[in-house]
Amino acid sequence: MLVLRVFLVGLMLCTGTVGWSQDFATIYFGDPDIEEKVDDYRKDKGVVGMGLVVVHDGEIVYLRGYGKEDREANVYVDPKATRFRWASISKTLTGVLAVMADNDGIVDLDRNVPYYYPSYMVPNKYYVGGNLNNGQSVPWYRRLITMRQLLSHTSGIQHYSNGLNRPEPPASSAANPSLNTGMEWALKYWKYNPLIDLPGNRWSYSTPAYNLAGVVLEQKMGGSFDQLTQMLIAQPAGMTTLRPDTLWNPAPRRAVGYLLDGGDATRDNRDDDVSWKLAGGGFISTVEDMGRYAAALLGDEILSPAEKFDMWSPQSLRNGDLTNWALGWRIRQGTAKDLDFKVEHGGAQTKARCHLSLYPNRGLAVAVMTNSSTNCDTRGLARDIEEIVIERLDTGDAPIKKGYDRLDMIAEPLFPSIGLFRSVTTTYRALAR
Question: Which residues form a coiled coil (predicted)?
């Protein structure tokens, strides 16, 4: 089935039905309502560089870059070129691949992980209720962790600071390609640690659980996680800039990170390789490509309607209680039948804060990506923009106002510097209010 899926993706790319030949709608810059929200947000949060994309009915209808990807070098954000980290939004890619593997009969999401990856054994110790001073033995009949539990954060596997020790390799090792050979290499830093609770007992967010899920998918689907993502997600979606964020081979136009220090943004000179946790938070791309990803998910380019239903269904605890997490996604509001059913994921990492929201029944998505390492509420901005667009759709209007498209058409060819062009349009917008 996997071979057939890859073949069909290749066939569609060759015939132009998806991927590179996909034409998006006219993109109007300067929607006054959206720009007012963004202006207020940037003034309030002090974000140095940001990308924004809005998707509706399978098309990117709004695409903007704001501020600078590198303030010191005076490089402005280009939404088609500047690459921001996905951070934990990468987990949604893992959910997509896992649903594919389950549907194709490659991995049963309800089978014990060691069945597929014998190198991992469910620990025989756990901390009762997460209390590190209250260790107990895991009963033999509870030594079972499924892929579904890994993907819904109910496995009992620790996150960063709530376990016996931090589950990450030394920065120097992670930055060394001769040592850092991928996610499987990094499992040794935590896989023997006790669980923080019995599998299925409670919800507890875990990036290491996603790394383990990614390794299982690599083992059973027959390729590296990057290769699988490129073949089965990026190519059919028409994404050209998605890649692992390796420190030793940085992506072109990789955004510089900034911190807010006493109200002023300062360059964040920390840098870290995140490719060792690719399935949990290791990708980078332009905001345009995140929009292409959202458009493909809202359509049928990547997953069938049945697969999306499975991916976006709430998952349960062992006692039957439903959580508000699906497979790789958080369910923010509603159920699958509701018009305003919403799934989302955010990301927080060195050099990045970002957010992606999808309304599957509206065909709507909003993504915000920044180069801030400080809490800057990207979800709040995305929510404000969603409300603007939804209000228009509910009254029968177009999702985006044309705004200053005439000025754009005149000014853009005249100013090769996107920064100079933006200064003109920003001034015009301020005067026009």
Answer: none
Look at the block and give the residue holding tokens 């799934």.
Answer: 343
Domains 26-91+240-408 and 93-220 share a fold: yes
> Is 82 in contact with 284 (CB distance < 8 Å)?
no
Write the DSSP assignment of 388-405 as a string of letters.
HHHHHHHTT--SS--TTH
Q: How many residues does the chain have?
A: 433
pLDDT average per 10 residues of sequence, the chain (433 residues): 59 47 46 96 94 97 97 97 98 98 98 98 90 89 97 97 93 96 97 96 97 98 97 98 96 95 84 96 98 98 97 98 98 96 97 98 98 93 98 97 56 46 46 44
Contact 387, 360 (CB under 8 A): no
Domain coordinates in residue numbering, the chain: 26-91+240-408, 93-220
Which CATH homologous superfamily contains domain 93-220?
DD-peptidase/beta-lactamase superfamily (3.40.710.10)
Topology (CATH) of 26-91+240-408: Beta-lactamase (3.40.710)
Using CA atoms, how far residue 399 sits from 42, 266, 304, 362, 393, in Å, is 22, 36, 26, 11, 6
DSSP 8-class letter at 100: H
Q: Is 277 in contact with 189 (CB distance < 8 Å)?
A: no
Q: Which residues of 319-354 are buried (b: 16+ CB within 10 A; e: fewer)?
A: eeeebebbbbbbbbeeeeeeeebbbbbbbbbebbbb
In DSSP notation, 324-336 reads: SB-SSSEEEES-T
Give the closest residue to 93 by CA, choosing from 195, 208, 243. Answer: 243
Q: pTM for the complete prediction?
A: 0.89
Q: In this structure, is the dihedral angle defined by the CA atoms of residues 185, 2, 91 and 252, taken in order, positive or negative?
A: positive
Quote the Cα angle for 190-195-200, to 5°.
Answer: 130
Closest CA to 38 of 418, 393, 369, 428: 369
Residue matched to tokens 């390789």: 273
Sequence-distant contacts of 305-314: CB under 8 A, at least 24 apart: 306/103, 307/99, 307/100, 307/103, 308/99, 308/360, 309/336, 310/99, 310/102, 310/103, 311/95, 311/96, 311/99, 312/336, 312/341, 312/343, 312/360
Q: Which of 162, 169, 154, 292 is nearest to 236 (CA)?
A: 292
Residue for token digits 């280009």?
78
